[in-house]
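Entry:
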Amino acid sequence: MVREIEARRMAAVLVEAVTGLGLAFIDEAGRIGSWNAGAAQITGWSAADMLGRDLTRLFATADAGETAALFAAALGAGEAGIQRLCRRGDGTSFPAQLSIAPVRAEPGGPGGYALVLRDICDELHAEEAHRTCEAQLHSMRERQLPPEFAPVSRFTVPGEMQGDAIVHVVDGDRAIRQSLAFLLASEGFPVRLHESASRFLDSVTQAPAGCIITDLRTPDIDGIAFLRRLAQRGFTLPVIMMTGPAELSLAVEAMKEGAVDFIEKPFDDERLLACLRAALERHQRKTQREAQGLDILARLQSLSERERQVLDRLVEGKANKVIAHELGISPRTVEIYRAHVMTKMRAASLPELVRFALRAGAGRP
């Protein structure tokens, strides 16, 4: 029972990572196990209204046989989709695109289905809805995503994304934004979506932690200009640039402007995830080195003037007697200053002390 409750909690975290798109997970009996904010916004049915209820409650005309046929079709073909008249919480009806795919369970565990729901009242958005659903379902089929059935450990946020770190997806194509949001959320990455570079710059005013995934050709500010604006603000988080075919020269220019990697569309999900993890790992190492450098500099600045004079000469490789002669003090006094320097710099040996000093820029010109 505890495992089931915890798994349901983690499922809720996953489905809430994507907004504007109805996501639900259905058990093999047709009962709704997860219902995200997007589904609630589209249908007017809250999670409290739908959790544990039969999927047929959503339909304007309840037909258990049609639901069973939809599940059977999904099992046979790997996915299935229908356009269906659905019922809102206020009693009104609306046409919706429903796509469903079976979710592989852990060995010996129960299975279920992943449901993607879109309101298609506006026929101009019907094609986009279908494309988005297909992309989402492809990702679901390729990896085990049983939100309320899988072990909780599958939803642990990667170490490099702890704290306030977020993956910012900046793209003018709504379908791509939502597809990437679901992919990244399913892998445990916190996600924030931005429809343009200017929207990102308006909403993110302080240097963020995490990573940016953006398109080389965004609607208002192109990728190269976006990189320059980020540099002007002092934002150092890694940027992965998505490019189209035959844009190699622009991709190279983007790398020169600070992008850490680029990936050509259409791309494989695993390729993108590998790029993201590598970029975050490199950035984490860089951040740690910079923090260590600032710490060493603070230690260096804590030295007295005489201790600094001794350190500078140790870096030059001079012996205690030579240092004593140059400073007009005894060798024993040099040894005392040297011990103080070693303690303040937290160096375990003379070679380590020299490395610390050189890294902090010590040494006479």
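Residues 198 and 221 are 7 Å apart (CA to CA).
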